[in-house]
Fold these 4 entries.
Entry 1:
Amino acid sequence: MNPIFLLHPGDPVAVALADLSDGEALPNGVTVRGSVPRGHKVALRDIDRDGAVFKYGQVIGHATRPIAAGEHVHSHNLGMSDHTDDYAHGSLAKPTAYVPEAERDTFMGYRRGDGKAGTRNYVGIISSVNCSATVAHHVVREVERRGLLEGFPNVDGVIAITHGLGCCISNKNEAFAMLQRTIWGHVRHPNFGAVMMVGLGCETNQIPAMVETFGKPPAGSMHYLTIQQMGGTRKTIEACLEKLVSEVLPAANKARREPLPASELIVALQCGGSDGLSGITANPALGLAVDRLVAQGGSAVLAETPEVYGAEHLLTRRAVRPEVGEALIERIRWWEDYAAKLDGEINNNPTPGNKAGGLTTILEKSLGAVCKAGSTNLVSVLRYAEPVKERGMSMMDTPGYDPMGVTGQVAGGSNLLCFTTGRGSVFGYKPTPSIKIATNTPMYRHMEEDMDINAGTIADGEETHEQVADRIYREILRVASGGQSKSEALGFGDCEFVPWNISAQM
Amino acid sequence: MNPIFLLHPGDPVAVALADLSDGEALPNGVTVRGSVPRGHKVALRDIDRDGAVFKYGQVIGHATRPIAAGEHVHSHNLGMSDHTDDYAHGSLAKPTAYVPEAERDTFMGYRRGDGKAGTRNYVGIISSVNCSATVAHHVVREVERRGLLEGFPNVDGVIAITHGLGCCISNKNEAFAMLQRTIWGHVRHPNFGAVMMVGLGCETNQIPAMVETFGKPPAGSMHYLTIQQMGGTRKTIEACLEKLVSEVLPAANKARREPLPASELIVALQCGGSDGLSGITANPALGLAVDRLVAQGGSAVLAETPEVYGAEHLLTRRAVRPEVGEALIERIRWWEDYAAKLDGEINNNPTPGNKAGGLTTILEKSLGAVCKAGSTNLVSVLRYAEPVKERGMSMMDTPGYDPMGVTGQVAGGSNLLCFTTGRGSVFGYKPTPSIKIATNTPMYRHMEEDMDINAGTIADGEETHEQVADRIYREILRVASGGQSKSEALGFGDCEFVPWNISAQM
Ligand SMILES: [Ca+2]
Ligand SMILES: [Ca+2]
Ligand SMILES: [Ca+2]
Ligand SMILES: [Ca+2]
Ligand SMILES: [Ca+2]
């Protein structure tokens, strides 16, 4: 097995896949000087003092003294450069190398009345406020108990989308608009054949106000009622069940899968429970798969602003237009202000644990997260839960916390999710399926029932990034076409809708 | 029917229960001058200019011009007085008139090993982070599917307590301490016979760290495991089920109800979906029931700081010690600062809708909420989810939002909940049962399957406050003894655990 790993052809450093000892010969003929721990960087050639050090083909810092080929590269000889405010908006944007239309891939999806493409055909019972959450879940439970889905084989399931918010908040600020967008993005999600909204009646987050804000959905695609209007819990549940059987399920059951171009895919990118291999195996492999999807005319949604923090100038340089880069910087400034207000700190600096694992600079750390978005242009920067409108790679402003990030990405229209994990996150979501990619083989083996893809084969020397990227890309098409992901088989997705709230709860 | 309603014997104003017309004779012989709409105040005697106007036996403002008996009392002749910073800590505290011990009431409850008293005997599956929420719910589902409760008739049920928090937060600030307290207050709640905690493994909110913070619970009362340690979702569910059947359920099943003094009751007070009658019927009647409970040596927990705002000096005057009153003011200042930081506003001023309904000043409005805590001393002011330690009436700092408020109150040890509602909230909780008290008869009739008690009979002239208070008090003892509340019959309580988060989610 090759003891080192090169993340980009031109990089002057590689990552050790095992502990390297003094005098050991590397495949390129260089001899290791001193020792280099597993996961740390080794110099592949001499680097001058002040010379730029590249990893992932990107600058991660500058040499603070001359570095000889074979030396360990870390805090003792690598430092941060003054870089952070040269956003150089769009300076590295380049034309996308699209696959000719005639040669593009397809998947079997649902074409909705509004032109959007779904990968699933669920019916959603969506609550406007926590006060109606129990009713939504009981409707789902009764559908199962009474076997009401039996006559509707084309419906993937009736699911409850509930949450802890919706009242005792100002209805005038951005936080309220975010909640409305988050819920509405699910109401109008193409993975739903139809939805029913259930409210209490007196909540701040009024369902009719959402209809007014966003416009009346096409007839039959959305129904709503409130508990107070229906006269209580039991009557509301019965009314929902009656409406489901008489109208909603028969309508949703008419949907059929048909061949749709891969350009209709909007893939949410997420990582959770990262480890030292995340930025070396799973994330770069996912980045290559994203590049392939974008070449097909498809879309990907990077998120998790606090984890991008410190590498924002790399994204601004890939912005298709200066405004796109500027929108990202505006979001970065918002986070600095918000975190400071709440005595928090936005700071993605490597922790002592990261440093022990071989990460030297904030750039290197953030690059490990950002590289899952591949190398194409940044086509738009979205507010939380804002609909994806431009094809290509977008960035949505979300927290790094998995359920809140994914909830925003799905609200934006993501019809598939690729989730990399090192420690073993078991994340699944509805109505958007989640493909989980393990960064290392031991965890994959330990949790194989939960993991869809093992990218640890790269560190094991058994596969290249391109080979794993190919498996990810094919898995995207398979799952988008209705193939079950591991988290779907396990029944995840009834607890993971967690809207992000930035305002004071009164 | 008496057309007016007097909230306290000495009050110079009464509330109109129907529209009053010019010349109409009131029961006390006074003649109505002009018209007084339903829900508004009418003067029962002449009030001098600058004279204090009392309602609930409390000053709600001063006459801005002379008011004649029979006149409508509202914004045109009643204004706010300069009162707000005279906290007069403890000036109105008085000895509690306890019922002699030998004459005290009892209920049938569970005496736990640590001395605490439970009103239910559930087994809880509690998640440390959203990432383990699905596993917790699936354990509960499998218990039902496989009929695993069959041999354990003394266990009220196996329930999942899950939430949207637990990771990507600082573990150094008060917000994290709040989350730990909230979860631990449920882990150690006397309404649980035993609990199992389920974590993912890599979350910020580590289960062992909670055990270290709060101390090891008595053997057998708490078990925990993580998904990453067990090797995935299915194996974790099976391990939980095995532990439940072999150890947890048999242990919990040993609990038996026995007569316990009413002094062991800790009743959370909450209102949701309030209306114009909340402060006139249900809340004051609940206040009388609370006074009766406190006279028995029992405890009540007022909460909802934003709704107390503006009437805090009334509570500080009832403080048993100056520090207690000062602790309340410290919380009020915290809210002002917190709301300002998030571009919010803490302001309980009457809205145009409140004014149209007859509420003139902020004092009058807050009094309508505070009066559900009765008239006894304020014995302590608690942080969110802090354990109730002093018997009597305490105030816990929580948002007004029902699920977040109740989650904190239950974490503090509340073993029963009284919830007043005018619009018709259908709130239920587990493991603490909820008694819902309707403020008006039309809503009670409309939603009778959800409402436990109708306090609208007071406005109807059919019962006095004392009569309704007696029904509430007896219902408290009945439900505490295992009698089913309406929300329990309907199966509420699997979605309403919503911890309050005041920090930035990263
Ligand atoms: Ca992450
Ligand atoms: Ca994440
Ligand atoms: Ca939920
Ligand atoms: Ca309220
Ligand atoms: Ca409330």
Note: The mean pLDDT of chain A is 95.
Entry 2:
Amino acid sequence: MTTTDLAKRVYDHTWKLDPIVRSLLDTDFYKLLMLQMIWGLYRDQPVTFSLVNRTHAVRVADEIDEAELRDQLDHARSLTVSKKEMIWLAGNSFYGRAHIFDPAFLGWLADYRLPDYDLAVRDGQFELTFSGSWVDVTLWEIPALAIINELRSRAALKGLGRFQLDVVYARAKAKLWSKVERLRGLPDLRISDFGTRRRHSFLWQRWCVEALKEGLDDAFTGTSNVLLAMDNDLEALGTNAHELPMVLGALAKDEAALRRAPYGVLADWRKYYGGNLLIVLPDTFGTAPFLRDAPDWVADWTGFRPDSAPPIPGGEAIIAWWRAKGRDPRDKLLVFSDALDVATIEETYRHFEGRVRMSFGWGTNLTNDFAGCAPTPNGGLKAISLVCKITDVGGQPAVKLSDNPEKALGRPDEVERYLRVFGAAGRVAQPVLV
Amino acid sequence: MTTTDLAKRVYDHTWKLDPIVRSLLDTDFYKLLMLQMIWGLYRDQPVTFSLVNRTHAVRVADEIDEAELRDQLDHARSLTVSKKEMIWLAGNSFYGRAHIFDPAFLGWLADYRLPDYDLAVRDGQFELTFSGSWVDVTLWEIPALAIINELRSRAALKGLGRFQLDVVYARAKAKLWSKVERLRGLPDLRISDFGTRRRHSFLWQRWCVEALKEGLDDAFTGTSNVLLAMDNDLEALGTNAHELPMVLGALAKDEAALRRAPYGVLADWRKYYGGNLLIVLPDTFGTAPFLRDAPDWVADWTGFRPDSAPPIPGGEAIIAWWRAKGRDPRDKLLVFSDALDVATIEETYRHFEGRVRMSFGWGTNLTNDFAGCAPTPNGGLKAISLVCKITDVGGQPAVKLSDNPEKALGRPDEVERYLRVFGAAGRVAQPVLV
């Protein structure tokens, strides 16, 4: 008997859309943690998020079709958090803590939908912005990036035959598994998936997460992707991001207030979360100025996530600061998450082994490394440095300085003003690959 | 809607057997060509085929279950050539020739089933023999080998999880595809699949054949597997094998008749087939003696298949012989088929390029190279040198000398006698890997 499933076959013929984002939980966990705080403290603050392609040479709007992008964004707007998902958010423990989400916040979230967007094409790039109250637009960041990145993958693979596609994924699987085997050589490794936004595709990220779960056992500590955490009984991981100090910085009335803004964010955060969620992201306006001006209580936090400095000098600077504050770095945690791949992870691990607790949030090179996998060189499969960042806060431009000037964002005159306030100490330009 | 196919799922639960051989055409084409000649000339000749594991260190009967082996052999015995297959054999052209099979032969084949077998276990090895008239038992060779080899693969993969299996096949695919890419560097390559008997599994051989078809285009000239040739509209390839001179040698009444036997086989063959099917397999009793004593008309044949000498000296000896016979080697064909892998193919191709026509029959390293693919070293996935050869011809032991003494077969006293008749010129011992 031929066993074609007739209903499936006909359904496949009639597909209008293969949705990229099928759940509002298909996002990074820190967006939900930040969302609860934004909902509590800044819910009506008007902001704009904008798409920024730092890989200028790639003309994204030439690679993918605007109509397809609109279809995917519109589909994402049709989603609400499902009943099962709401129950899981309310009932699951995160970072060992039950009831991390306030029932009132969850009540608001149950009715939430992604708001409208503005999309135009200029000079081969998409101008995609999300304007509205912070609490409404912030969740767009991850699905918008995941959609564009997956549409790029789909466009890059168009025209390949079924057999060639089989080889592409076979090679990608073999490649990832060889990375897993190398990572097994690091006995006390703690590593997690941070690859949602830059992933090749949702299904590929799911395979990668399953690969780490199978191949690394306890060394794999979880995923930033809330949906994958739920579906695979993994820890949902992540704390906070640059958008918090960027908004608070933009809201500062004067230079003194601006200088205090990064610590104000931490004070807000501490009202909501504790323990392992007390991770400082120090580089929004430069790590060296942050450490120089930080109040002593910042040294009580569990750890730091150096996100734009090279990991070894970046980590050393933080360790030196902990020591200067009389803290033992062996009690502290460094979360590395910038442009990691196996070689950097190995090097960083070996450098700091025994001197500080470490964890690694592995992103693009986990979920979107297809170099050498296509039958012929295929630029469309190469991940680009696409971000979706706060650009405007109630009419005031937002700024990120970063430890790497190549990652700085904001209107040039505002960047200059921030540099005057914080100084440029410790900034080192490095190419931004992903 | 969850789209589980309930009927399939329940059917899967109730599986008694996943058959390895599902068609009598899942065999090497040369078996059918030889079968027609045997049917015409020697149909009642009693012979015995016996399984021989030349890789003594591997205890096959410890790896696989005798009951499973019996189930698979019994299933193969239940097969007949289907109506569609019969029509294809009658209607297809082989080597450019229509109606290669006599209707009377096809009429006999339509009712054919594999005969009974004898199976015992001794010292960790299967003693598997097929005794009867030559025309009845000869077709057992390929399915018997394919069944045992695939049962070994299945046993080796037992206990691996679904994810691990996914990685094993991803790696094997990536590995084969990198071989395909290397072979693309040989502009006039002609290569075919000869990997049925030693394949990892039927489905894997099918994938490999599809890979060569997709990746090598016209450089891929076909497959020895009749079923895969039919299903993929490929040329079915192969001519004749050692069993012909082995039987004719055993039937020789005296030493002079024995010395003439290899040429008698060719004379028989020429009555049935012509053109590109006139390929000499010279090594049954040693290539050097064969060439020394060959009548001039042998040099009129299309080509030679050196099968146990190292390809470069083996090919050179044949080229020198053609020259001595006043033939231009550039009009002649060498078919290389022994223990090939990409490096040997490249080396042989470059050595003979422009001096002789060449084709490559790629076997075990095409369809069963899983080295480095399993999560942990897995000896069960390593191909062994398993053959199924004529051992007895109506009470007279059969002998193969080969150019490689490691591949010789036969009762020692008979091997000695054959060596006295043919001489040992040109024999070079090499390890038999596959």
Note: Chain B has a mean pLDDT of 96.
Entry 3:
Amino acid sequence: MKNIYFDCDLGADDALALAYLLASPNINLLGVGSVCGNTSADQAAKNTLDLLDLGGYTNIPVAVGEQDFRVNTFDDSVKHIHGDNGVGNIELPHTSRTPVKEDAKDMLLRLSHEYAGTLHVLAIGPLTNLAAALESDPTLPSRIASVTIMGGAAMVPGNISAVAEANIGNDPEAARIVFEASWPITVAPLDVTMANTFEEEHRHALLHSTNPVAQAVGQILDFYFDFYTTEYGRRCSAVHDPIAAALCAEGITTDIAPCAPVTVDDTQGPGRGQLICDLRGQRVGWHDIDGAHVRVVLHTACDVAQHLVDVITA
Amino acid sequence: MKNIYFDCDLGADDALALAYLLASPNINLLGVGSVCGNTSADQAAKNTLDLLDLGGYTNIPVAVGEQDFRVNTFDDSVKHIHGDNGVGNIELPHTSRTPVKEDAKDMLLRLSHEYAGTLHVLAIGPLTNLAAALESDPTLPSRIASVTIMGGAAMVPGNISAVAEANIGNDPEAARIVFEASWPITVAPLDVTMANTFEEEHRHALLHSTNPVAQAVGQILDFYFDFYTTEYGRRCSAVHDPIAAALCAEGITTDIAPCAPVTVDDTQGPGRGQLICDLRGQRVGWHDIDGAHVRVVLHTACDVAQHLVDVITA
């Protein structure tokens, strides 16, 4: 069982990732921290609590995290993608449970001591909470087994600028701190998350499941599919956050995932928010670069969407 | 016949491009400007004069251009790629002809008046001369029919940094001026120039030609192939500059070449020198973006190397 601190801005695809984590046999979800991004940090925490309690996971604590980015301003501007409430305008059954008193970064720091050496971090929103934790305690990486992140665009266009993906681009200053810290990172950029799609057949499999969280996620994705129809030319969606979750759970395999030097553009220039992955010299065969601590997942070797459905509806 | 001002830092692959232009039936090469890059501006002018006169083109004038970049310093650091003299350490027969008195930017400006509306610019080195001409006379674009450039890396790694290609990255300030000017640009980035290779069979076809310029270029490329062996795992080279020349001469066809918004990162950040091509929203089919004036050539629909050989050895 992998001990997990899960940081998210839940979020339509975050909801799918959460449903997957809850159903995964090898995941011990110790706590969830919320962050602004797809919705506000408060709303993300509410959505997470609603989904957890809908599934009966009433013992998993949720901590509210950073309400704003370090330099950019959170402006709740992706309601056209995730709905006004972050979960595709679906009214989930509302739990009376509330977030814990500690904030997300303190939850992460506490868990890093309680599970020193065995705690894995899964971060699928802006990296604001993780950066705050690193600034509070720079020794944090020494107690973390691994960090898995959804973010960036290595060799494909970005989604909030020509080169910037939302999680990195919303808070480049935080992302730079996180990617420069000395912990082993696996990152799933748009290269792999846009290449994998969740289709109507997969969504219907969730809707027809007996798992109430799966059913809710199937409903939530309806709105998300509307947005992605423009991108793909059919009703489906990218598989952003769930790929990071499946990598963390070791449920999927990859065939192109070199360790490479990675940095973040936190200038105010036209490349602001770009996750710069140095993939030079890989033409004769993908290989790890000496000293690099970030594994950049460029291609999966399996049917990710079917894997998600199989685990969630098992 | 297309009237051409040709700006180059000759250069092993520049030599191949020049041999192609001289042999092209539809090119009227009015003048050549040299710029620092693959070698110094003085050496590039010498190499160009030697090749021109070797082929009997003693009436084509060569003007020396900018000796240094706008902010970066020219440091003649690619001798391992292009040889100490820019032409693979081959001793070309040296002509006694010397560059004209006017500098490259003045040649470009003069030609733009003499051939107003019909002058095409082909630039395969850093864009320092073109930027200088634009600053001298901002009305220049109104007299230019088209600009074709080799430079940038749209969705592949750079070659002087993770994201920067040498022509743009050596002088980002100049490149930004050139790409922001209101003239129609066609740019061949590493995406297409690295995907096309010049093989030993092509080089041998040049060596065995009766064209003395072709023979010289076949010899020059030997050293260049040594460098690219590491990149490709076999003796061959990329086809950087000749692709821009062939696009300018309309000798090759493309199948992916959308007009897209393009800018240059001229910050001092980690993305410095990147040609940022906004290729978002092209998943449902490559298409031109309204208002964009830069055509980004991503894929050729023909055998470029064979076309070069066919034209040069005809």
Note: Chain A touches chain B at residues 155-159, 161-163, 194, 230-233, 261, 263-271, 274, 276-284 (CB under 8 Å).
Entry 4:
Amino acid sequence: MFNCMMTKELDLIYQELAYNLALKGKISCYPNPAVGCLIVKEGQIISLGYHKFAGTAHAERDAVEKLQQAYPDTWQEKIAHAHVYVTLEPCAHYGRTPPCANLLADCKVAKVTYLSADTTDKVNGKGVKILREAGVEVEFVPWQQCLNLNKDFFALQAQADLPFIKVKIGASLDSKIALPNGNSKWITSLQAREYVQALRWQSDAILTSAKTLIIDQAKYNVRYEQLPQEVKNYLAVKDLKQPKVVIFDNSFLLTGQEEIFKHHQSQNLIIVSQKEHPLANKIPELNFVVGYNSHQKQDLEKILQILKQEYALANVLVETGSSLTNFFLEQKLFSQLHYFMAPKILGSGVQALATQEKFTQLEQCLTLNLLYQINLNEDNLYLVYEQK
Amino acid sequence: MFNCMMTKELDLIYQELAYNLALKGKISCYPNPAVGCLIVKEGQIISLGYHKFAGTAHAERDAVEKLQQAYPDTWQEKIAHAHVYVTLEPCAHYGRTPPCANLLADCKVAKVTYLSADTTDKVNGKGVKILREAGVEVEFVPWQQCLNLNKDFFALQAQADLPFIKVKIGASLDSKIALPNGNSKWITSLQAREYVQALRWQSDAILTSAKTLIIDQAKYNVRYEQLPQEVKNYLAVKDLKQPKVVIFDNSFLLTGQEEIFKHHQSQNLIIVSQKEHPLANKIPELNFVVGYNSHQKQDLEKILQILKQEYALANVLVETGSSLTNFFLEQKLFSQLHYFMAPKILGSGVQALATQEKFTQLEQCLTLNLLYQINLNEDNLYLVYEQK
């Protein structure tokens, strides 16, 4: 129908639309990968869908169900011979939902274009095989952006010594996290803070320092009502799990009277100190990691290993003050930097990123890759980076 | 064909695609507005286009010509009764190209949806009128994003005392413009620097301080070969105009031997100082603005007025060191902030944004609106803000 040039251009547009759909589900679909799907028939977009929440329809099924709702009688006819664009290889396993590869094969679509490979054991080519055996043409157009969106998913599926570590920062355009007087309420927008609640909800643990926890009187819990609506649409209050909290306290600042002790059960708190902590006698239900100096890279690595191996913390959110945050970055002990940037200029105040080392050459600096970006209300940008 | 829900969703997708097309032309279409156009027939995207360069086809014509090329014999039949999405009201005036409103009417399209109003005298409803009189259905769906993209265009069409002032900053993620030793080559990517060349090319003048000019040995000229390819595709070397350079030099640092004097004709340089400048005798072809203290807001405003009224500088790019840059921001004497952000963490060094005032409340800080964003190579973000 189209000449070749236009076909290629449209192909790119469809791929980009599928990616944009995937991105819409990213904050809520955890721990599943974010996936978007577009169904095109004779040059018309006939349906679209994305994965919204673990246990609900995958992107392909979401798109098919949407078509079913729109055309209860004729959807089968409409989808037959269609071209499906999907950002990840269709799944081949019976999880909480039946496999998407079978669904698409049953729908008799003509062609499936997928944009990133699902290398996890459950899929890894099996989806493609099901489709091909059913006579569906399958095309793989590897698109790094689609992989970048799910690096956390793939990392968490793989074996690793250390937890997957997300460092979270909320800062102004000039990279300040507080005014000179310490005032930081609020630099980022309400929606940005809702996203931080979602990051907590996604995490096995939040990692912080006793100092920050005391200064901020931080609770480090997930407040259901403050979660993004996309999450609340599917998450029942009763299903909300609180993350554990890991507290670095070499100086024995914690007394047991802090806010955190009121909002978490003692067995969900893990206190890390070089020498035995005085609270060990006072609150024996607490967990302690003793013997490591968190100010040294090797010891910090060891602590993180213990958190992964002894406490099964696979996914840790570093949400703390500027010095510990910067230590994680400087030591390159992080998987991703989740940077919320508000369109404000504070002019002076506490710098978000002020590492100890003084570089003389730009090549020495930490360089990052932008994995994905979500534009939030009030022009706050949610930027997710990894080390280059 | 579609039920209502899907139609609405597709409408939004088409609008967004038209916007994305407009954005593609933003860096090269100056001084014209950036416009994107999508043509949809019976649910199929049949063509797309955008305005690339002043004097070349407008977005609507670009899309029509693309269709003509693809279907030399049947394009008229294809476009008849189509639905056109365009980010700005179709033009009604004969400029270097005939009016787009007439073109679309002649093509017998069924409907035109436009996403922002062209309030300039030449159009201002006339495009809509031409279309309606030809029996074309016209729908206005105001979309702030499309207006935001062309704020510079609309501001430059209007009367104003002051020039349109773009402040340019190239910084790291932690908002540093140089390492502690002053090394800043290069924080931003090659493409970001090409975009800065394009900003210079778009400007009537570059404004800087003698100090920065001397330290950086800056030439402040446009280097044709370093312009973005999008610009070079249409701009002939011979048509490249160099911006004037305005130099603030209260301390009489300029000797006439600096690089800048080798790369600009003297009559294109404007030197601003409080007292009469010693170079006035030495190089009489230079321009001088004397009697104002650029460190005071009222005087700075007066200087800018003179630049606009006496030197006809309507569009000024502030591209200078951190203290003058910050003074413009602090005094709110700017129209837009053009912020190039590289995914690097310098950790220490010269802060891009370090205003003098110390705030105690976040409400006192400068808050910005993000107008638009272009993602450049090497994950550099080009963010364009205005004051909220």
Note: Residues 72 and 330 of chain A are 57 Å apart (CA to CA).
